[in-house]
Amino acid sequence: MTLGDGYAPLLDPAVLVRLREELDDDEGVWKVFVQNFITQLPERNERLRQTLTTGDLKGAIDAVLSLKTSCQMVGAERLAWLAIGLEQAIRNVADDAGAAVALPQLAAAHLRRIKQCSRQTTYLLQAALRQKP
Which helix or strand (DSSP H or E) is residue 9 part of? Predict the structure, then answer.
């Protein structure tokens, strides 16, 4: 992923094209896949928020990896990029004792952008689902 000016594109349409080609063996399997991502995104964000604000280091790593990986699978490039940045910051937390202070600070620094990007990404993915191939 090239970030050039510091931002990845919200959505990589080539990933959606590839999903269509790989998963559309029956009627709209790729659409179900994308719709599942959209449906689960608020839950992933909430889990990330909970683990960060409670200082759960292992849970936060798991939650951010889940967000990052699912975003990459549907081409949600900017959201994946934000998750990668947060993942790096989480991994810099030395231990569970430091997590109690550091993770809530990371929540304050990162979650608003992630939530906003999630809304924008959801909008674009919903539009892509309505388009004819």
Answer: none
